[in-house]
Amino acid sequence: xxxxxxxxxxxxxxxxxxxxxxxxxxxxxxxxxxxxxxxxxxxxxxxxxxxxxxxxxxxxxxxxxxxxxxxxxxxxxxxxxxxxxxxxxxxxxxxxxxxxxxxxxxxxxxxxxxxxxxxxxxxxxxxxxxxxxxxxxxxxxxxxxxxxxxxxxxxxxxxxxxxxxxxxxxxxxxxxxxxxxxxxxxxxxxxxxxxxxxxxxxxxxxxxxxxxxxxxxxxxxxxxxxxxxxxxxxxxxxxxxxxxxxxxxxxxxxxxxxxxxxxxxxxxxxxxxxxxxxxxxxxxxxxxxxxxxxxxxxxxxxxxxxxxxxxxxxxxxxxxxxxxxxxxxxxxxxxxxxxxxxxxxxxxxxxxxxxxxxxxxxxxxxxxxxxxxxxxxxxxxxxxxxxxxxxxxxxxxxxxxxxxxxxxxxxxxxxxxxxxxxxxxxxxxxxxxxxxxxxxxxxxxxxxxxxxxxxxxxxxxxxxxxxxxxxxxxxxxxxxxxxxxx
Amino acid sequence: xxxxxxxxxxxxxxxxxxxxxxxxxxxxxxxxxxxxxxxxxxxxxxxxxxxxxxxxxxxxxxxxxxxxxxxxxxxxxxxxxxxxxxxxxxxxxxxxxxxxxxxxxxxxxxxxxxxxxxxxxxxxxxxxxxxxxxxxxxxxxxxxxxxxxxxxxxxxxxxxxxxxxxxxxxxxxxxxxxxxxxxxxxxxxxxxxxxxxxxxxxxxxxxxxxxxxxxxxxxxxxxxxxxxxxxxxxxxxxxxxxxxxxxxxxxxxxxxxxxxxxxxxxxxxxxxxxxxxxxxxxxxxxxxxxxxxxxxxxxxxxxxxxxxxxxxxxxxxxxxxxxxxxxxxxxxxxxxxxxxxxxxxxxxxxxxxxxxxxxxxxxxxxxxxxxxxxxxxxxxxxxxxxxxxxxxxxxxxxxxxxxxxxxxxxxxxxxxxxxxxxxxxxxxxxxxxxxxxxxxxxxxxxxxxxxxxxxxxxxxxxxxxxxxxx
Lengths: 486, 470
Prior knowledge:
The structure holds two protein chains of two kinds. By secondary structure, chain A is of the alpha/beta class. Chain A is built from 16 helices and eight strands.
């Protein structure tokens, strides 16, 4: 299958799949460039959608229809000679009437074709398209013997028709068909003329009512210019003058004149009518081949952009390069059961408070809280130095309880855990966790963070009874009161 | 053939949005795992970004550096000779990895630092600047690799941006970029690659290709989206249903019209989501408040007359075409008469094709219902907002898109708006479900879609320039 056929098939699959491509046709597209990947995907999709037999049928249908009309034009051309030039009773051919009949409509249609071809939108294509579509449909009905048509046959038919006769290829295709049909018509006429002249003896005359003899002489001179160059026997000006009605030539001269007129008529038909049409037909045939060669998929179409995402996704499937060897801690899934905390926490005596990564505002709150219960300066652990200082001070204090002040909004991490473990500098040290928050904060987020904190606290044996959460609505004085009571 | 790979390690503290950043760069919401807690990423996970057929960018997600204070102290304690450098310290630590099981996650990060070409250090700028972050940067510096600090969540943390920039400058990290993996800006993504280009001069061509490829992809996607929206508008305006002249029929037909336009919008919505690689669950379902609209046949309106004139001329030419064909068969005997007769027939045929349905409906006492201007106005506004929302949505975003609050009155309509609607309403054949027998005139439809797409592109450019100014 050549590239054009493949792309046409891809378009056919687009027609079936639109608006979005299916991602069922999996293959290793990543190693292929986009063209090859599309081609491969098309082949896979065609196995399922069976578009290629339909396209093949449509191609044959078009060829058959064009061929059928070629035959019709051939017959029309052939019959027109016998119908209009020769009849059983007549033995004379009016030469210039014959020229007008064969060449004038041809020139007229060439002019119309030129206007249509070179000046767009003069002839509205839909009308012609509808005519051709009706014709193809009729031929298809006659030719298509299969009763069960492809489920998307109509859609594919419309697409194929639009592709062949639409904006991209239509003008070239229609021009080629038009010249082909005219060639058939003129070929039929030429062959028929040969046959007539081979089997009939006719005299060539010319007649006029309003034109002068000079007109015919000039016209003949133009027509005979080329045959004269090629040394073909054609009528001389005197033959033209003698060819009017009533002038009888001697037998030998008459036969020579008949041959010269026949040469001119056949030459004119072939060179001035048939040959230009055949040349134009071949030019546009090449044009079609070129169009096919240059046929590109519109990759800017939404369908193809989605398809590109499937074939060549921006990100290739992910892979693990350094897997975690440790099983996930089951504590991670304890959920809301662990998010309990002690709302009436009693602050212990002989305790050492440490703040961890508190911002200025919360640090002030924590400071106030510490001052009400203990007589030590609160160290805010922010880096390695402050961490070492806090641990050193803790050891010096010989405290049996450590109160860790944290911001509930911060994400607890292993760094915090590591430090909390270091705070358990002797076996009987009990850690407390005091979480600070703001009432205005997002409640769902706070609830989620509380869960995280309770979860990580459990890893350093801080059970929920040693955890409390303070926000602005719960003032430190409440807790102070609880200490007194305790 | 093996591809030439450029590798990036994305590192940072826990919960700074490393996985989110990669999801957004990959346009893949299924990459990794994200949660608002530390320790979500436990593996080093990689994914490739395709540059071209021969080059890929590999991007590695790493676990968070959660205990950098301890890690730095351990690394600094490594006994090395005075000639050894940071890399030797890291290698020494890695060599003794069994001594530090509590730092197993950090070990993975260090290995990733040493094995990749460049490092993205992701910072959640909503966070205060803490010593542990400085320690993290010090550890990164030991790897002697180019570092691009990525300031994440710039929308929510704009107040803290200046502090972080100052802090990074003090650590000699000037080539930082701003990014928001939730509120996405394509220009920010390009800046990341441009910074990479600056720091990896020997990979300049590969990164240039990457930048160009991403630009092309973005533009193609935007253009395709604009075409989809333009097609929706044209088809929604062309959509019509015939009703009898009684309330019951009109009510029933009105429901059909609403359902049809909703289907059109849903189809476009799904395509837009697919185009931007989002899923249906990323958006709140919403209904288009379609109002009953009625298109009355006005055969003598200026537009109709104008179109009628144009069609008459072209049909005359078509008719003349038939006449010439007849002349051909008759070998020119009836040349003139056939062409004239064909011309007249062509005009009459054109009139019949264009207005038969309307005239027939008028005679039979039917009427056609179609979407009114307000409905189409809302449809337009919603699609514009949807497009902007999709373009600015990061693939790490977990909140759903909601377009229910869009007020169409706030959206200025293009100048040619009324002309577009008239044009589309006059061509019911442009919507297949109308089953109109009028000539398809697809080229005319494509022309209208192109005009609307160009208008959408102009709106988009205007929005982009406004955003850049801001």
